[in-house]
Amino acid sequence: MIQSAPCAEWAIDWTSLSGVKSELLKIQPEVQKAINQGKPVVALESTIISHGLPRPKNAQAALEFEQILRDKGVVPATIAVIDGVANIGLDAKGLDLIANQDIAKASVRDLPILAAKELSGATTVAATAHLAALAGIRVFATGGLGGVHRGANETFDESADLSVLANTPITVVSAGVKSVLDISATLERLESLSVPVLGFQTKTFPAFWLRESEFTIDWSVDSATEIAAVMFAQDLIGEGGGIVVANPVPEHLGWERIEHDLIVAKAFAAADAAGVRGKAVTPFLLQYIVEASGGKSLEVNLNLAKNNVSLAADIAIAWSAISED
Ligand code: PSU
Ligand code: MN
Hints:
This protein is of the alpha/beta class. The protein has helices spanning 29-37, 47-52, 57-71, 92-100, 111-117, 125-135, 152-155, 160-167, 183-192, 224-237, 257-274, 281-292, 296-324, and strands at 25-27, 41-44, 75-82, 85-88, 104-106, 121-123, 139-141, 171-174, 197-200, 219-221, 243-246.
């Protein structure tokens, strides 16, 4: 029997099916303990490590993200599928694996396939959010959210990140969406899907490497405590979905707009020429942009991700305090 989710002890007992793993979701003891005690926990995704950042900086980033959380007294839970098992919290070996092995990019639909085939996969925002929520984690930090791709009216390329957030009770901190996406359409879809978007100390939606896109959002919040209050209210009167916190990269750490626009345009032309499609598009563009910018985009990417992890820590702390009362 599959237990109802979300539940901290959640696991599927497949023992009746011989040859299939008995445990498909493995929660690290430290993470499980923090969840049980209502202590702050932040989920971290693995696709950003496996497919979004180049080696060897990716391995270093994975460790740094976790350290930012630990320094604030928050338990990190980096999520990835290892040999078919969804791991909530990775040890040093697991972090090394997601950074240095060639593993699949896994969205939610890939999870059952990886499980049955006992393969490893790096989880996207969608898959990480889904697994984190199953484990009972409420806050998640990433770099940039997936969204609607440019030309989606023909290709239908819209990240599952959006639809998953419509149904998953988790707060995702991101620096908006990359300017390689159709930001306007992404914001429209988030509205249709009833996902609240909160600008952290801003009413302008950020564009990942840039502090500002050309689009405004309805609501800004001033503090982590205010975000926790929205989460609390969302649980009571919302649709049972998640929240997007849009956290602009700090002013002095952003990318210069003119150079950004030039290189992003070149990246599109290259993707087009190479005929890249589907889930390969995001990694292709990111890698191209890192190379064409001589590492500048990478530096900004790392900085914005760390900034998101830090805010996520504050939100998890505020959430832990609010949910104790
Ligand atoms: N933003 C980044 N680096 C990444 C991604 C986003 O800076 O690697 C990843 C995230 O895991 C996100 C995914 O969930 O790209 C979206 O991919 P797709 O468009 O194929 O759903
Ligand atoms: Mn896609």
